[in-house]
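Mods, move this if it's the wrong board.
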Amino acid sequence: MNESILRAHLSRALDWADAHVDFDSAVENIPAELRGAKPDAAAHTPWEILEHLRITQEDILDFCRNPEYWERNWPDEYWPPTPAPPSDGAWARSTDAFRRDREDIKRLALDPSIELFAAIPHGTGQTYLRELLLVIDHNSYHIGQLVGLRIQLGCWPPK
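Not the wrong board. Structure tokens:
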């Protein structure tokens, strides 16, 4: 496969909706009063999933770009401290930050100066390709989890 085709495919995979719901649809119009709600059998609230998505994506991006990267403590620093957002503004800031970081990851995928198969210099053998695939996989999993949670909460599909 041509490397530019691979890069374009990776970039598109970060926000496509070919085989599943995309991020924007998954977070669209979740009522403020349900953002911190957790049905009986659910493990998380919509806020917890959103923040986990944002924090983890930000962390992987930081790992790819920052030679001074410092690994966060699992699981405490990868999940929010509260089940509900502290404000409507917090929800908006989190969704905006997720989108911004996703765009940065897409730029990284498309950057021909980044050798996809090269080990990240400050890592322990991880390649840039591995990290891109990790973001795609992780986001897909939790976006699907968020849709399932919205079904349980009775706010799917978005209105």
